[in-house]
Amino acid sequence: MTDARTALKEDLARGYRIFGALGWGDLGDGHISGRDPERRDCFWLLRYGVPFPEATTDDLVLVGPEGELVEGNGDINRPGFYIHQPILAARADVVSAAHTHTEWGTPFCAEVRPIEPITQEACIFFENAALFDDEEVQVQGLDAGARLAQSLGRNRALLLRNHGPLTVGASVAESVVWFAMLERVAEAHLKTTNPRPISPAAARFARDDLTREGTARSVFEFLGRHHRVW
Fold it and tell me: Is the pTM of this model over 0.90?
């Protein structure tokens, strides 16, 4: 196994444990993917049935472009395959996508409204989050995943109506950190009654600064240490 594959799998298992520490995925919902650096048409997922806090690299399975098990042992999360495969296929720049149902993200998505720059974290998604305004909350095939990928476009986040948030990144660290940030953004939008957004120019400046190279990795490491998942 190459160093790049080992590092990706370690980050992916850590990402699941971070989600678990934050209380997400307790109903068996959600998934984080990691594009394999050797076989770029394949990606790693946590095998179905493993609680997020218990995720290790041994629990990861490599999924092929047709949904076949390429490497590892266990069942493939089929909704995870339907969602992640089309997104990774459409976005060569994306290494990882993250999605689960959360306390604030899911109800915010039910409101089907855009993100406004009302907090520092919200600026990360200013002009960089799309809405999937569709009633298909049960993703049962690649056709539905393809519609998600089309709605996502070149953005870093997608708000699935009546379903929940999804984020993508050039690394597992990015997709996980953007998701954690997006949950805070959703909470802020739902809790404030009369927010006063900052200007578009100020929001774009903050977005570019908050997403500069290396920032997500630093936050990822901090999350892991803070929640004692490694």
Answer: yes
